[in-house]
Design a protein that fits this description.
By secondary structure, this protein is α/β, with parallel strands linked by helices. The chain contains 14 helices and 15 strands. Strands 1, 2, 3, 4, 5, 6, 7, 8 and 9 form a nine-stranded mixed beta sheet that branches. Helix 8 runs parallel beside helix 10.
């Protein structure tokens, strides 16, 4: 069984047709959902790029691997699920954005291929994400330089940076040379040229739909801002709201982010998603031409969501649903598809799921839980709660979510978020400090502390990190 992992960057859970969005056009991703299982309550363990990606491949939480922000890297010899696949006889290929280490100004990603191979990857064709492409080189920028397009891209991005967060104009890049088109095309070329001597695991890391809001060509005109879903308004502090929680509600809210601007942002964001969906279809077609599609396990996920105007915010780094809930679709040959599973799951649960699917030995230290029972319809849940954490707004932040409630606190133990998601799915009434919810707050705090305490790691005699 081959394995295809598709990871768009900063893709909201609700921005897919298969997730119930009636405006966006994602027929190819929808096809994967029809043939697989959509997990409607999948959560990132950190709503920011590098920590989430490190957790996905290592099976650890940020408090284990200590990457809390977009800085640092996992040790070169640290275990990933790629190593398990190699031992099982797989050829592992990585195409696109990995962000397993910092993308520094003046550097070229080919200088880090030894590090990537130490991660358990045999074939490496890395690119940067959108903003890092301004300052960091890769095979993609080499290609653009030869085509006379690199200066076009970089000059446009410098203008966007000077303009600010509401830079809303189409990319000057040709559609077929756009960042995500380059990544999709390289994935197709890999499939077409692979010799098939071993089963493969191909990881395709798209750079979009991460901001800026720059879809190219026809994708810039694909969606009418008046027809996209409106943003969720900011919630307001109540008479019971503690001062620190009220302060956190205000942090990150952008002045000037009107509903009109938010809708224009969403229209552009949707255009970038539809371009990625086009290339998902091209990748599936390439697999079909090689006769491999029916024997390929497919995983589609994202590292975190995008606020897209919800609660007066853009981007991520917060624990609102728009930022912390992510898409997760898994298609396994031989398992009936077309189902939606509402069970709570975390992105690190993909690691043991892949190992079980291919019959590999389980990891001794991965904190993920296999989803095979859910995929086969033999289980209803694997978790009672999900955990997420990040260093943002000058402090450590932790979140736990059960089927009904979501609670968050900072590293000093100050609670700043309590939502009843059953009664208030849009997170408009923050119940932190509410006298009638004191018992719920205490219970959620205890759950959070237990979750952190029960997921600690230590190093063994040989330096191997074990649980």
């Amino acid at each position: 069984m081959n394995i295809l992992i598709i990871m768009p960057d900063q893709l909201r859970a609700d921005s897919l047709g298969c997730a119930g969005n009636k405006v966006i056009k994602t027929p190819n991703i929808d096809r994967i959902a029809r043939e697989g299982v959509l997990f409607s309550n999948a959560y990132t363990v950190s709503p920011i790029c590098m920590p989430a990606r490190a957790s996905f491949v290592s099976g650890l939480y940020p408090h284990n691997h200590t990457m809390w922000t977009n800085a640092g890297s996992l040790p070169p010899d640290d275990e990933t699920f790629f190593h398990h696949l190699q031992r099982k006889g797989y050829f592992v290929a990585y195409i696109g954005k990995s962000h397993f280490y910092p993308h520094r100004a003046g550097d070229h990603l080919k200088n880090h291929e030894d590090y990537m191979r130490a991660r358990g990857i045999d074939y490496v064709h890395e690119t940067t994400g959108p903003w890092a492409t301004v300052r960091t080189d890769s095979y993609m920028t080499d290609h653009w330089r030869e085509k006379g397009l690199l200066s076009v891209f970089r000059e446009d991005y410098l203008k966007r940076r000077d303009f600010g967060p509401f830079a809303l104009w189409p990319s000057p890049m040709p559609t077929d040379e756009f960042l995500d088109s380059y990544i999709g095309r390289k994935a197709v070329e890999f499939i077409e040229g692979y010799d098939g001597s071993k089963p493969f695991c191909l990881f395709v890391g798209f750079g979009g739909p991460h901001e800026p809001w720059d879809p190219p060509g026809e994708y810039a005109e694909m969606y009418d801002p008046d027809e996209v879903p409106p943003p969720i308004p900011p919630e307001r502090a109540r008479e019971w709201t503690p001062p620190y929680a009220a302060e956190r509600m205000r942090k990150g809210v952008l002045e000037g982010l009107t509903d009109e601007i938010a809708r224009r942002i969403r229209a552009s964001y949707y255009g970038k998603i539809s371009l990625i969906d086009r290339w998902v279809g091209e990748i599936l077609d390439a697999l079909e031409r090689r006769g491999w599609l029916e024997e390929t396990m497919i995983v589609l996920w994202s590292d975190h969501g995008e606020m897209a105007g919800d609660h007066g915010r853009l981007h991520k780094s917060v624990f609102y649903e728009s930022s912390v809930r992510v898409p997760l679709i898994i298609r396994v040959p031989g398992i009936e598809g077309g189902r939606v599973v509402p069970a709570l799951v975390e992105i690190i649960d993909v690691y043991p799921t892949i190992l079980e699917a291919v019959g590999a030995e389980p990891s001794r230290r991965c904190f993920g839980r296999s989803l095979m029972g859910l995929l086969k319809g033999e289980a209803e849940s694997v978790r009672d709660e999900v955990l997420s954490e990040i260093h943002a707004f000058g402090c450590y932040n932790y979140m736990i979510r059960t089927e009904r409630f979501k609670y968050a606190m900072n590293g000093e133990g100050e609670g700043f978020m309590l939502f009843d998601l059953e009664e208030d799915p849009d997170e408009q009434v923050n119940l932190i400090g509410h006298p009638e919810y004191g018992d719920v707050e205490r219970e959620m705090r205890e759950r959070l502390l237990r979750a952190i305490a029960s997921s600690q790691c230590r190093y063994g005699r040989g330096g191997e990190l074990v649980s």
